Amino acid sequence: MRNIRNIVSLLLLAVVLMGCRSVAITGRKQLNLVSDADVLSSSLTQYKSFMSSAKVSTEKVQSETVTRVGQRIAAATEKYLAENGMQADLQNYAWEFNLVKSDEINAFCMPGGKIVVYEGIMKLFDNDDELAVVLGHEVAHAVAKHSNERMSQQILQQYGAAALSIGLSGQSYAVQSVASQVYGIGSQVGVMLPFSRKHESEADYMGLVLMTMAGYNPDYAVTFWKKMAAKSGGSTNELMSTHPSDARRISDIQKSLPEIKSKYGGVQSQSQKKPREIKIH
Predict the structure, then answer these.
(1) One-letter-per-residue 3-state SS of 192-243
(2) Which of the following is catalytic: 138, 149, 200, 202?
(3) Which tens digits make up the pLDDT trace of 55-69?
(4) 138 is catalytic
């Protein structure tokens, strides 16, 4: 029995060691047992299913704003990847930014750069910079490949030591078997991908970096999340949520802003010099 446990432990260790990669920008090591091709295929199926039943917004100005800000952040993201030895990842992204009819205050991201924003959250934005906070966060989920990591964690949990062979040769089967759990459409937390608090915090940081590189003012992240906190009444229980508490999120953002602005600020955009007065809603 002890020998069996030792073998299993060694196999699991091999899976972890062979399936590790680093997240862009943060450098965090993450588990990766699934191929990008498999993840993109399964997520695209889920995305098309969602969009086929969703009602695309008829708010022309808002839709154009979402696309404009999103594409600007995507361009900055691709530039960063190309300049930092990650050109191979560029083929994985076909960016789409869609605004859909819903009063829900939400947005979500699918692998490959498929991002959906709900009309409800647009009411909280007073300028492009605040919208960039949300879109930067969602783009960050795609760049950090958080869905790949969640799938890998699910596979490891379900298959144990057998994940070694699955991860190397049976990825399509493994991905399909956990996709419905990872892409939790209609899940209790109301998001397409219920990421962990670690992923959410990482996406906050990376999103600030990406929006800053795109020329938006990251200081507006504090303004936006304070609005979100007021909207929720500060009732978020961090222990019972996949998201950080409002207070924790705002505190972490405030701590990271000086470093991000110093390292990634570069040439300030007009929005970084003074608040924009033109509302987008």
Answers:
(1) CCCCCHHHHHHHHHHHHHHHHHCCCCCCHHHHHHHHHHHHHCCCCCHHHCCC
(2) 138
(3) 999 999 999 999 999
(4) yes
